[in-house]
UniProtKB/TrEMBL annotation:
This is DUF397 domain-containing protein. Residues 7-62 form the DUF397 domain. It comes from Streptomyces salyersiae. Pfam families: DUF397.
Length: 69
């Protein structure tokens, strides 16, 4: 069953003072996009990142290629 309503996921690291994003990876297979939004402004804008770009980003984070902001 495919749905157009994203299921938002907040990182387990989200208790770091509110500087967090949420992602809805459940749309990656059906639409090829991963929506990303600010966890403090859930009604605000949503950035759509291609599934491939998001996968590369996650792999880079896991490999330690990105520093903290």
């Amino acid at each position: 069953m495919t749905t157009d309503s994203p299921r938002w996921f907040t990182s387990s690291y989200s208790n770091n003072g509110g500087q967090c994003v949420e992602v809805a990876v459940d749309l990656a297979a059906s639409r090829g996009v991963v929506p990303v939004r600010d966890s403090k402004d859930r009604g605000g804008p949503v950035l759509g990142v291609t599934a491939g770009a998001f996968a590369s980003f996650v792999a880079g984070v896991k490999a330690g290629r990105f520093g903290t902001v």
